[in-house]
Structure formats: structure tokens, C-alpha cells
Design brief:
By secondary structure, the chain is of the alpha/beta class. About 3% of the residues have low confidence. The protein has one domain: Glutaredoxin (3-Layer(aba) Sandwich), CATH 3.40.30.10. It contains five helices and seven strands. It has a seven-stranded mixed sheet. The radius of gyration is 17 Å and the shape is globular.
Amino acid sequence: MKKILIVLALVMAISLFAEDVFPNFSLENIKGDKIDLEDYLVDGELVIIDFWATWCKPCMKELPELDKIDKEYDKVTVIAISSDRPRHVNKVKRVIRSKNFGFITLLDSDKKLQRELNLKTVPRTIIIDSQRQILYDHSGFKIGDEVELKKKLDSFLQPQTEKEIQQETEL
């Protein structure tokens, strides 16, 4: 029985990103404004979508690292999606403001997007390109994971950088 459950879980996880295209979504930010993913999809740039919650200790360790990445990489936008319940929205706001995080913070309080994606745990970090192609998908966080994330970003951005250099030298 245990093996069957494990196989089913794997099949569900694989089927989640079978198309490797992240769905478009519209969620409210912590100010109450509606934000569409499409507004942040720019050719040659990447978007990190991170699902987190205030009660999640690994999430709270990951957020400062994501903020550093957001500030360090011009061609990367970080969107942190909180799955905290509606009654904890003020706690989400306090965390973001007290740490002075600059990334985009959205609320999925009803967990509708998480259910659509069949995400069961936080943190969950996904990198997509401007076509919403999923380039990287990682569950959990431990110190050192940010190094791997930066390596992935560098490798995904590198080909674009080389193309830009080649185009500039051809001019």
C-alpha cells in the first residue's frame, strides 16, 4: 500500500508540470491590488515564483536569500506568494515590511493557485521564462540552496548574455 501511494504521489508531481508551462494567474498583493503574472514576463528575463508561509521556518530562512537575488539580478523578478490564511494577512505584511523585502509579495490565502498546481508543501521555488516555461522546480530550503539557485539563474541567463554580446559586436 505504501509503495502504491509513493508511486501515485510521483505520478501526480510529474503530471503537474507535464507541459512544463506555468499557468497564468492574477492575485492580490499586500496592498490589495490585483497583479497578473503576464505583467512580469519580459523576453530575456526570468521570474522566480516562490510559495511560502509565515509559519514555515525554512521559508523564513529563504526569503532573505530571495531578496538578495532580487536585488542582485537585473533580469530576474522574484514573486513570493504567501499561502497564509486570510486572518494572517497582517502577519504577512509585518514580515515583509519589517525585513524591508523588495520583491513582489502576493497572497494566495484561499490556496486556489496552490491547489491548481497540486502543491502540497512550502517553500516551493519555481523559475520560469517569459513564455512561462518551467526551467527549475525545487521543494524545501536549507542554507546552501540559494547557491544552487544562483547557479541555475546564471546558466539560464548566460545564453542570453552571449547572444546580446554577439549582436552588439555585429552592429
